[in-house]
Structure formats: C-alpha cells, structure tokens
Amino acid sequence: MASNHENLLAELRLTLRPGIRADADALRSLVGGILQSYGLPAPGAALDDDLADVAGWYGSRQGMFEVLEDSSGVLVGCSGAYGRSQTLCELRRLYLAYKVRHRGLGRVLLERVLAWARTHGFETIELFTAPVLKEAVQLYERYGFARQLQASAGKADACDLHFSLRLRDAGS
Ligand SMILES: CC(C)(COP(=O)(O)OP(=O)(O)OC[C@H]1O[C@@H](n2cnc3c(N)ncnc32)[C@H](O)[C@@H]1OP(=O)(O)O)[C@@H](O)C(=O)NCCC(=O)NCCS
C-alpha cells in the first residue's frame, strides 16, 4: 500500500510533507478557493483557526497535518486529523486542487489519515462535511463512513453532515 502511494506521488511529481506554520497563506488560498467554488464560505479567522498554524494546532491536539506540493513548490492538497478524546479523532481539511483530482490522491490522503488513526489507537474517526461536497461524500461512503443523525451543532461553516467510521471494535 505504502509503495503504491509512493509510486503514484512520484509519477505525478508530487511531494507529501508535514504542514508547517509558513503554509498558512497557501492553505487559506487552496481551501478558500475550493470552498468558494462550491458556494461555501471561505475559512475565516475564527478562534479555532487551524490553518493559521497547522503544526501548532494539530500538534497540540495529538494530531497530524500533511500537505501535498507539486514540483514547483505549490500546495495542491492537504489533510489533517486530531484527537477529540483518547478513542475518537476527527478528520479535517481533506482538499485537493482541481488539477490533481481523479487520480487516486483523495484515496491516498484518506488512507494515510486512517492508518495514522489506527496506529494511534483511535476506535472511531468522524468528520463534518457539507452535502454539496459530493465527491467527498462519495469518497467517505466508499470507505464505510456512516452518516450520523446527530446534527453538528455549532459548526459555523455549513458543514452540517456528520460521518463516522469505526476503526476497531471496542475492547479489541
Ligand atoms: C474529495 C476529493 C479529495 C477526492 O479527491 P480525488 O483525488 O479526486 O479522489 P480519488 O481520485 O482518489 O477518488 C476517490 C473517490 O472519490 C470519489 N470521487 C472522486 N471524484 C468524484 C466525482 N467527480 N464524483 C463522485 N465521486 C467522486 C469516488 O468515490 C472515488 O472513488 P471511485 O473512483 O472508486 O469512484 C476531491 O474531490 C476534493 O478535494 N474535493 C473538494 C474538497 C472537499 O470536498 N473536501 C472534503 C471536505 S470535508
């Protein structure tokens, strides 16, 4: 699996690396541009603004954040996750620029987050998304994420669709 991922990245001349604070502007531009293309509000400067410093934000929440760079150093993708409790983590910010879509990179980024979550012993991974993000919704359903009835109260960014995936049975 890992080598398949590496081969795909090499073929597309893309590099995956941990996100750093200096990525903030590029991440805002990537994520904001994609959200606006779906008619959704761009991420604002909220108190829990993860994009301002992904290394600090995710690092202080037992999390991970990766960015995908093209051969000129332009950010073309990202994904992150953090622990909400000892057993539950949340996937956030899975985004790919249009020019690198439909090549399996969404699967690569998602599988890396799932592998990270399993390695760190989380039992469940959840995420909040918007119904209009149809490609992502299909991707999550393909991987077995189930829609939760519980609404995502307090989500200010129209991400009112709640999904979760059991990573292992409780007690196993
Ligand atoms: C979701 C996203 C990351 C998928 O990236 P991708 O590299 O194009 O996806 P892949 O090529 O790895 O395809 C994986 C799966 O995604 C889904 N998918 C991808 N493109 C799709 C499309 N045009 N329509 C429907 N489903 C699609 C499919 O389930 C696909 O699996 P399949 O090929 O077996 O049908 C990408 O579309 C994206 O960045 N979307 C906008 C941002 C977003 O919605 N992020 C989620 C925020 S919660």
Brief digest:
This protein is an alpha+beta fold and 172 residues long.
Number of helices: 5
Radius of gyration from the CA trace? 15 Å
This entry's quaternary arrangement is: single chain
Q: CATH superfamily name? A: Gcn5-related N-acetyltransferase (GNAT)
How much β-strand is present in the residues?
25-35%
User: What would you call the shape?
Assistant: globular
The SSE string, one letter per element, is: HEHHEEEHEHEE
> Portion of residues in helices?
25-40%
The level-1 CATH class:
Alpha Beta
Residue stretches low in confidence (pLDDT < 50, at least 5 long) are none
In CATH terms, what is the architecture?
3-Layer(aba) Sandwich
Record the strand order, biggest sheet.
Answer: 1-2-3-4-5-7-6
Ligand list: coenzyme A
Q: Give the tally of structural domains.
A: 1
Mean pLDDT: 92
Q: In CATH terms, what is the fold-level topology?
A: Aminopeptidase
Strand element count: 7
Helix vs. strand class = alpha+beta
Describe the structure.
- The structure is a single chain.
- The chain has 172 residues and is an alpha+beta fold.
- The chain has a single domain, classed as Aminopeptidase.
- It is 31% helix and 25% strand.
- The chain has 5 helices and 7 strands; from the N terminus they run αβααβββαβαββ.
- The protein has helices at residues 2-11, 24-37, 54-59, 105-119, 134-142, and strands spanning 15-18, 64-69, 75-83, 88-96, 124-129, 146-148, 161-166.
- It has a 7-stranded mixed sheet with strand order 1-2-3-4-5-7-6, with helices on both faces.
- Strand 2 and strand 3 form a beta hairpin.
- The protein is globular and about 45 Å long.
- The two termini are 24 Å apart.
- Coenzyme A binds at residues 34, 94-96, 101-107, 127, 129, 133-136, 138-139, 142.
